[in-house]
Write a structure and sequence with these properties.
Layout: H1 14-20, H2 23-32, H3 42-45, E1 59-64, H4 71-85, E2 90-94, H5 101-113, E3 118-121, H6 130-138, E4 143-146, E5 158-161, H7 164-179, E6 185-191, H8 197-210, E7 216-223, H9 228-241, E8 247-250, H10 253-266, E9 272-277, H11 280-288, E10 293-298, H12 303-316, E11 331-333, E12 338-340, H13 344-347
Parallel strand pairs: 1-2, 1-3, 3-4, 4-5, 5-11, 6-7, 6-8, 8-9, 9-10
Antiparallel strand pairs: 10-12
Length: 353
Amino acid sequence: MSSTPRAPGGATSRRNMLFGTAAAGAALFAAGCTSNESNESAEESGAAGVADDKPGKKVTIGFAGPQADHGWLNAITTQAKKRAEKYEDVRLEATEGSNDNATQVGQIDTLINKKVDVLVVLPADGKALTQAGLKAMRAGIPVVNLDRVFASQKAYRCWIGGDNYGMGLNAGHFIGEQLKDRKKAKVVELAGVDNLELTRQRTKGFDDALKSYPNIEKVARQAAEFTVESGQSKMSQLLRAQQRFDALWNHDDDQGVGALRAIEQAGRDEFLMVGGAGSKRVMQAIKKDDSVVKATVLYPPTMAASAIDLARALGQGKGIGGMAEFEIPASLTLYSAVVSKENVDQYLPIGFT
C-alpha cells in the first residue's frame, strides 16, 4: 500500500461502472480530466475534445509499478493492463515491476528511451524515484503519478491516488455509528507498517473520527506489516492483551486474512471488524454475514484503470468530459467508500483477489 498526499447507485456502462464504484472521488475524475490541448474551440464544441471508446490517435503508454507481491498491488497491475486492452488505439509497454528503487529507475529509463507517448508510474518509493519522473517530463513525456507521490510536482503532470486519511476517518465513523449507543465501548486498531506515512494518516483519520464519539475509547493498537503472517501474529497479541472489546479497525485486508485466523483460533466473536482496501474475500464475508467482518473501507485499485484513461486522453490531446476547464487537474484524490452489507453487491465487481 502506499502513502498519499493530503490533497494538493450502480453504473450501467463499463466506463461508468469503473469510475462510479470509486464513489465521489472517481466520479470527479470521470467528470473532467482535460488535456492542455484542444482539437476544437470551446465555442464550437463546448468541450476540449472529449475522449470516448471510439478508436482515435494511437497512443503508447508506458507503465511502471512495484513488484506485485501484495493483493492490492497485483490488482493495480491487472487493472492497468485490462483497461489498456479495452482500447484499440492503446499499446501498453509494461515493466516487470520491482521494489528495488535502482531497478525501477532503470525500467523507467528504458520506457523513456522507447519514446512512449505517456508514462504512468506507481513508484516503489515516491521520493527516491522523483528524478525519474523529472527526467521523463524533461524529455517531453507527460507523467501520470499513481498513488505514491513524487517529491516534486515538476515530476508529474497529474497525480491520482487514494485517501489514506479518509480511510481512517470513514472507518472510525462507521464504527462510531455502530457503537454510539453502547456505554464505555472499546476499540482496537491493527495498523500497517508504522514507518510509512500512509499508516500514520490512516491512524490519524481514525483517531479524529473517534473524537466525535465520547463513549468510545481506543484501548490498544498494534502495527503489522501488510502480510498475512504479521496480521495473525499481531492480532494474537491484541487478543491476549484485551479480554473484551467492541470493534477492530484493520488497515489492510491482506493482513486481515491472518487476523481472522487468530480471531477464529481464539474463539472470539464479541466485536465487529472493519477492514481496509476492499478485497473480494472480505466483501464476500460481508455479504455472507456469518463472521465478525462487517465492513471494509475502499482504497480502490481501479485508480490504475483511471490512470490509463487519463494517459490515453493526454496522448490524444483530449479531455474526459464534463468540466469547464481545459487543463487536467494537478491531483485527483479518490473517495474511500465504506462497503457494508447494504451496498456490498455494488462493490463486489471491483473487489481484488
